[in-house]
Amino acid sequence: MRQHNGTTRRDLLIGAGTIAGGIGLAGLVAVRPSEATPATMQEAIRKVVGEATVNKGKVKLDIPPLTENGNTVACGVSVDSPMTADSYVKAIHVFNEKNPQPNVISIQLGPRAGRAAITTRIRLADTQSVTAIAELSDGTFWSDSVEVIITLGACLEDPV
Amino acid sequence: MARALINVPAKAKRGEVIAIKTLISHIMETGFRHSTTGQAIPRDIITTLVATYNGAEIFRAELSPAIAANPFLTFYTVATESGTIAFRWTGDNGYDVSEQATITVE
Amino acid sequence: MKRLSAALLLLVAAASALATEIPLAERRSSYETLSPETKAMQDDDTANPAMLWVLEGETAWSRKAGEANKSCADCHNDARETMKGAATRYPAFDEKRKTPVDLEGRINICRTEQQKAPALPYESRELLALSAFVARQSRGMPIESKDPRLKPFIDQGRTLFEARQGQLNLACSQCHDDNFGRKLAGIPMPQAHPTGYPVYRLEWQSLGSLQRRLRNCMIGMRAEFYPYGAPEYIALETYLMWRARGMNVESPAVRP
């Protein structure tokens, strides 16, 4: 997760935090060694969807665009589906692109759920993109992505 | 801390979609942190939460280190009959915690 | 850290030399600057992680302990009645010790003197659970600081609050009295009122006491921090509660 060595990340976050949302940060974020990359996330997604196309739509990923602390970020996923025996959401998967590993959570549902909507709290190591993918009973995949800016409190404790 | 805080409505109408909230105390140590002396702190997380309704599985979640400490998970299920909704969290180092709630369905 | 230090230096250079206390009517809890999601976390007892500690405290309240084999409930009965308002008045002056004690300190006095059990370590799970459970009973009630015996400690706390310290030569008041509301590293600077302790701090991913938070402040200011239980923390807590008099208790709160 977070490493408290060096100044690069702290400087980076201060820079990111003072820039208003709406500017794509991908170009401004300095490259630093990171174990997860957008490519790792794509690979993790491929493991789940195989060769199928991932369509945009039906899924709503709810994460506040600016969050006070990356340790606990509210995250909700809801999928537009009647949740009947013939048409329901089989699974919801959430991925990230800059944490040390790309998976966030995988959820199995069925028609008994009644509503395909979950909420949880996640950790985000840095300002990054988060993607939610829903697998439907008809074998199709749908997705939504959100760009999240992570700020950092000023007065922190030493690491463990 | 109390191990778990579950919120299941005590009563529901048959066919009603009910919200279930779960909160459990767990450090969710990622395995990516290091102590001040540079030693890696080993991973210790909850990996799975399974919920069953009178024995039938209604929800399953596979968690990763990206889930925040004291995992909070909410989901929905259809109130089909009176009975027991059971929750089981399992994870690293043999972690295995179960809780349950009863529901009366009219 | 260099950019943070530079930002802080600019801030304090611009600040006035004399710290001015916040007018009573302008005091605000940092609850108001929380994101809607974090507010929701605090407001919903079924979703507030701090409730895990409150529930454990409720169990601990009835658990017999020590050589006296007594529980809190044996003397104090139902906490929902007897502890109502208790947290609004802590730190409270202890006549025997001639010094204020905070809530955690008071719990340990009961542990050692009444239950004849060993004191619970600072920031231990059980101490925080009891403190959270007791503080929860005062939620929504205004903080009181009327005891004249507290005055010398309030004054000492104010002196500590306004004294420059640490590698940044920075005083608490320079941020929390003079620059609240302005952003530091993207987060609005709070006025720093202890209305919600013990608090579930997202940074800690755990519940912690006001002393732990003050320790964090001092680390952030690059000052040498006091050990847990130090009289300086008690003086600061006493001052901060006086400074927040009349504001409502929110315990247990959630903060970033």
How would you describe what is shown here?
The complex is a heterotrimer of chains A (160), B (106) and C (256). Chain A has one domain (8-150): Immunoglobulin-like (Sandwich). Chain A is built from 2 helices and 9 strands, in the order ααβββββββββ. Chain A has helices at 8-18, 38-49, and strands at residues 54-56, 59-62, 66-67, 73-79, 89-96, 103-108, 117-122, 128-136, 141-150. In chain A, strands 1, 3, 5, 6, 8 and 9 form a 6-stranded mixed β-sheet that branches. In chain A, a hairpin with a 4-residue loop joins strand 8 and strand 9 (141-150). The longest helix of chain A is centred in the N-terminal third of the chain and has 12 residues, at 38-49. The model of chain A is unreliable at 1-8 and 11-34 (pLDDT under 50). With 106 residues, chain B is an all-beta fold. Chain B has one domain (4-105): Immunoglobulins (Immunoglobulin-like, Sandwich), CATH 2.60.40. Helices cover 0% and strands 54% of the residues of chain B. Chain B has strands at residues 4-7, 11-12, 17-24, 46-53, 56-63, 72-78, 83-91, 95-105. The termini of chain B are far apart. The model of chain B has no long low-confidence stretch (mean pLDDT 95). Chain C folds into 2 domains: 29-43 and 143-255, Orthogonal Bundle (Cytochrome Bc1 Complex, Chain D, domain 2), CATH 1.10.760; 50-136, Cytochrome c-like domain (Cytochrome Bc1 Complex, Chain D, domain 2). Chain C has 11 helices and 7 strands. In chain C, helix 3 (50-61) crosses helix 7 (125-136). Chain C is globular, with a radius of gyration of 18 Å. Classes of the chains: A alpha+beta (160), B mainly beta (106), C mainly alpha (256). Chains in contact: A-B, A-C, B-C. Strand 6 (103-108) of chain A pairs antiparallel with strand 5 (56-63) of chain B, so a sheet runs across the interface.
